[in-house]
């Protein structure tokens, strides 16, 4: 189902116009009425609705060619240029991608996306101000639509960058929760896996966007301007994408370091637990063995006092012996120093 169709553009007299809530049947008339028209479509299923919209706009390119690409796609047919750029959107504890299709022919830019393209809708709200700054001459049609295309792609990239901020905030909150004094029942490995998956999804989307923008700048498409100054806008976008990739890789390294720290802390706690149970087992093993041996003698009840004394002394000696060797091989890493904080300081 087509949820909304909005139109904006520049009329033949150079005056910008904006028409919200346009019917599908009006598209052919609107696209032929001005020097530049931007059709912004929100649908619930891109696969089902894109062919209908393309037919009304007079675009013969098959949308499935773009959708068959991995995350992003670039298709140049001379008089028609097709792009697919990913939106990175928050999902169920993981980031995921949603496609936006961009078609461009002379004096027409068509964007098709689902509800995740909210930022593009906001950009459309400021379309008259944006269009008013574009070149108005009839022979500058390529410059005009290239500038608008660069602005749309830049908005998509900025939207994706906001997802990285959410991932960083989640990683910082996770670190605070793990280091805090109050712990809650949680699957640490699952949360770390979700964060790493979100970062990989973000990196794949940014790399795919980088390739598409690179093709726009150096692909020499007929629908794109040849002006080096205007093409420099794509170079600015490439620089921003490159910085986003570097930041995402740094966050990935931070998450990996956090994983190592958490694993080391858990390993240390388990090791200390095992060590102290070893000391306790050694302390109980020796007197238990002696008690078993003394129980074999007849009339051992008459020797209760000496036997009890020997069992107590053997327990003390075996505990001291086990603790001595634990301290010798593990030093202060057995957690005994934490008990000192409960002692009163001498006055």
Automatic annotation (TrEMBL):
One of its GO terms (molecular function) is metal ion transmembrane transporter activity. One of its GO terms (cellular component) is membrane. InterPro entries: CorA_cytoplasmic_dom, MgTranspt_CorA/ZnTranspt_ZntB. It comes from the Archaea. Keywords: Membrane, Transmembrane, Transmembrane helix. The chain crosses the membrane at residues 273-297, 303-326. Gene3D superfamilies: Magnesium transport protein CorA, transmembrane region (1.20.58.340). This is Magnesium/cobalt transport protein, CorA. It comes from Nitrosotalea devaniterrae.
């Amino acid at each position: 189902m087509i949820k909304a169709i909005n139109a904006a553009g520049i009329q033949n007299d150079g005056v910008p116009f904006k028409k919200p809530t346009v019917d599908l049947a009006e598209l052919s008339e609107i696209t032929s009425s001005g020097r530049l028209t931007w059709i912004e479509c929100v649908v619930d299923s891109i696969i089902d609705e894109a062919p209908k919209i393309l037919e009304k706009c007079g675009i013969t390119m098959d949308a499935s060619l773009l959708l068959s690409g991995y995350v992003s796609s670039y298709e140049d047919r001379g008089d028609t240029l097709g792009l697919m750029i990913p939106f990175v959107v928050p999902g169920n504890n993981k980031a995921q991608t949603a496609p936006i299709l961009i078609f461009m022919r002379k004096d027409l830019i068509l964007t098709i996306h689902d509800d995740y393209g909210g930022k593009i809708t906001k950009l459309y709200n400021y379309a008259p101000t944006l269009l008013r700054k574009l070149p108005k001459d009839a022979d500058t049609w390529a410059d005009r639509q290239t500038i608008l295309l660069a602005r749309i792609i830049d908005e998509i990239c900025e939207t994706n960058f906001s997802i990285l901020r959410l991932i960083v905030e989640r990683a910082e909150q996770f670190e605070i929760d793990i280091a805090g004094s109050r712990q809650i029942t949680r699957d640490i490995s699952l949360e770390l896996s979700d964060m790493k998956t979100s970062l990989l999804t973000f990196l794949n989307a940014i790399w795919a966007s980088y390739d598409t923008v690179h093709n726009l700048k150096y692909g020499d498409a007929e629908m794109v301007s040849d002006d080096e100054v205007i093409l420099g806008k794509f170079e600015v976008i490439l620089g921003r994408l490159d910085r986003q990739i570097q930041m995402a890789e740094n966050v990935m390294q931070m998450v990996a370091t956090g994983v190592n720290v958490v694993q080391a802390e858990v390993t240390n706690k388990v090791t200390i637990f095992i060590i102290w149970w070893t000391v306790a087992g050694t302390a109980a093993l020796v007197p238990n063995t002696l008690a078993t041996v003394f129980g074999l003698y007849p009339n051992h009840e008459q020797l209760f006092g000496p036997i009890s004394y020997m069992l107590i002394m053997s327990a003390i000696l075996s505990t001291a012996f086990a603790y001595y060797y634990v301290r010798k091989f593990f030093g202060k890493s057995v957690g005994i120093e934490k008990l000192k904080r409960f002692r009163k300081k001498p006055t």
